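Figure caption, in words: inputs first, then the predicted bound structure.
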Amino acid sequence: MKTTDLFRANIRSLTPYSTARDEFQGTIDIRLDANENPYNTALNRYPDPHQRGLKATIAKLKGIDDQNIFVGNGSDEAIDLMYRLFCEPRLDNAVSIAPTYGMYKVAARINDVGFREVQLDEGYRLDADKMLAATDSNTKLLFVCSPNNPTGNLLSRSEIDKLITSFGGIVVLDEAYIDFAADGGLLGSLERYPNLVILQTMSKAWGIAGLRVGFAFADKAIIGAMTKVKYPYNINSLTQQKAIEVAQRVERFQTKLRSILSERERLATLLCSIDKIECVYPSDSNFILVKTACADTIYRQLLENDIIVRNRNTTVGCEGCLRITVGTKRENNKLIDTLKRIKL
Ligand SMILES: *Cc1c(COP(=O)(O)O)cnc(C)c1O
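Bound structure (pyridoxal-5'-phosphate present):
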């Protein structure tokens, strides 16, 4: 099946909104085409709807073509677009791993699309056959997340490959945490897999969650459809400008990344030495999942000491678990110190 046959009929036949900025690119002296205010405030002009500068920077950084890049208002925009592009409300469904990032399910509910969850095994490993067995002829999307949130581990490369090659629909692979992982991820396999959509973000390793910049990398047919459906000016001028600046400073990025990684290893070792912590799960991300003697009590006592972590105690497969983001050395030390002092 061709990827383009997977789009909903209304998307295939859609004529997108054409902005004033679509008709002319490049520099021009007098712009009277977009009903903008002529007085310069540095923000009086509409932003580039195609984010050409940012895409060129990311294309160079990742070694891919700019036609394979979608820029969204966070990864969440790309997740929502997957449903709008591929799933008929009240008819189609998506299959996801569990436990995982909550937005896949929320976006399914908002779009009135069925959502099925397949539990990872006790080691939080992915079983491709089990996931494929949960699909039917109305399954249009598979969601996998590697390294996975909240478990922190990379999923098996060969199981992910198997999903992509065996499934007739779209596989969305969320690599929000891939920069923290030992493995480089699947970006290098994009050309081989026309049904693969890889999500990455500038919110985590790049350190600009406040700007809201997420990426989808995929075949140009999929990127083209996402571009047709998105709000024309989805990324504002300040964000485009700042994201380019940040993405160009690769050395600063690597320095911060290295310190987060070394703090992760130090924090994991310290957590292992605490009696109340029963298990410290291996992490390929910037957080550590721990199983505790009493998650709710520890969570509350940390809060009383001005420290917040993520309580995952009520998540199936994460009973007793807290998800702890790797902080600065000072923050991590304070956490460890407080954990040691807590009375259960
Ligand atoms: C944090 C996170 C994201 C990033 O979302 P943004 O909208 O880009 O900030 C995406 N996926 C997962 C699994 C995450 O944990």
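Residues 289 and 323 are 4 Å apart (CA to CA).
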